[in-house]
Amino acid sequence: MGDQKRNFSRRDLFRSAGGAVLATTSLAGCDLLSTDPTTNKSNGRPAGKKGLEAPSLAAAVKAGTLPALKDRLPAQPLILKPAQEIGTYGGTWRTFIQGIDGSSVYENIGYDGLVRWAPDFSGVIPNVVSWDVGADGREYTFHLRKGMKWSDGKPFTADDIAFAYVDVLSNDELFPVFPEWLAPGGTPARFAKVDEVTCTFTFAEPHAFFLERLASPEGNILAASPKHYLQRFHKKYNPDVATLVKEAKVAEWIQLYFGKGGDGTSGLAIWQNPELPVLLPWVVVTPLTKDRLVAKRNPYYWKMDPDGSQLPYLDEVVIDIVASPETATLRVSNGDFTLPSTDVLIPANKPIFARNAEQGRYRLIDQMTSDINNGVVCLNLTHKNRAVRELFQNKDFRIGLSYAINRAELIKAVHQRQGEPYQSAPRPESDWYEETLAKQHTKYDVAEANRRLDRAGLTRRDAAGWRLRPDGNRVAFTVELPTGFDPTYPATAELIQTYWKAVGIEMRVQSQGGPLFWERLFANQCDAVLYSAENGLRDAILDPGWFFPVGGRCYYARLWADWYASGGKTGEAPPPAPRRQMQLYDTIKTTADEAERNRLFAEILRISREEFYTIGTVLIAGRYSIVQDNFRNVPEPIPEGSLYPDPAPVGPEQFYVRS
């Protein structure tokens, strides 16, 4: 369960080495929340027209099969202001995922952690809990909602958070590697239960990133571990757990525990176990199988709209499993989905969807992506072959290859004229945007490419015109790309192959199945890979692996990143420049002052500019989503990124179908 494992979803859930600086709740985030519905003004139809609970729940109360609404809600429900208007009860959200993938379900209906991202991705806002932070940034006190309940009606208390932290995350059988985001400086947080609705996390050093990490995918487990249910599958609490292991036909209690949903809402098991209590708007009634998942409204959900009506508005969510991108594209264009997955919403398909919008009764809306670059070549700077490593670490070699790429042609041929030449750098919308970092060496200049390659010591060629290394061997290497992740990768790689051939560099292209791709990458077995760079807005500091060798997103110097992650126990010690970046980042992670963190991160980016670790191609642009015409309260634009599990943070519980 260590940091270097990958979750092979479409979002490729993040593994980072750090956290965030978004510690201040934005005005937009605050405006979404209240604990007093009488102080909120409805911006839609008048209160009372739809009732205070869904008709099906009201009927169950009347029949005596469900407690009254006042007994199901916490003392202070979270008041959610709709994105557009007060909704009405009823309707179905239909979407799809490609393959049986828990994290893709999480991105739709599984995001309700202790805290959450503001819908506009501007900061962190309260959710299950509110908080206080000590003056030195070491102690975080969380205040739960008194009377809040799991979907089975059992109380949600500080004991559930204690169970998740002390008995799960701190259990070295379940998590052999303790999550680094809970141990800044290497010392795990100290947890204390104050009372049923109050608990504290105290760190040995200031933890500048804690709230942002809780709002990101890996933090969800702390609000997804119902002790009263999961303890029966835990060795500490059930002396007869071996019997359950045998009945489940698994090898050990660890498999049993995780198989019941103990790995959080971004895992797969939670969506295959309808018995698992949750804090989510909808609960699974038809488990995730080869065909579909169906989830019905949670009668104990703890949020309401400004009228005082319990959320969610929608009765159910249906998520179809679609076998191929072609089938998904056809069904989206036919209008089969209410708010479809973004898997097939690529530039090449946009004209198709636009032509069919009226017939399909849907509209196209913009997305605000934090992704950076659609097709970055990452040469393996820690290659196991010393001669290849020496060549790849030669900055003139990398710069020469960059000048050889005709990005204007690539954008026209592959990206439907969407985007602009760009390196691995924060996006133009980011506070950390720096033009030189973003644009250096992106001009198409074959003469300069040849000059740089000559300067790298590659002046000799063989009879076929290929450049030779100083040891006499041809400069030849393979760029690997994962299949099924991005349909533009093969065409991008093939064009780059022709550009580099023109300057005497032999590049081979090899597509690998997702698991094999990641296995080879993290085992340091690749010559080079092609992938998309992410985290280019304010999230750049949360997961900065594209700017220096750190975390799971460092695809260009695995051994240096491993050295940093292990405290020098594995991998290889990096040269002075990346080591300096690591030192700066260590300081950032324990610096309470945001201005100082920003200053230090700017220095990290300055060094990244000088080192030029990777070769970028195209700034990602033109992202869009599709929404059925009568599907309301979907904000425009929808933020999107690897740390923002869209669309869930915008609040699907307030989506509704307008008749």
From TrEMBL:
Protein name: Peptide/nickel transport system substrate-binding protein
Species this chain originates from: Actinopolymorpha pittospori
GO biological process: peptide transport
GO MF annotation terms: peptide transmembrane transporter activity
Residues covered by the Solute-binding protein family domain: 130-532
One protein family per Pfam: SBP_bac_5
Organism domain of life: Bacteria
SUPFAM superfamilies: Periplasmic binding protein-like II
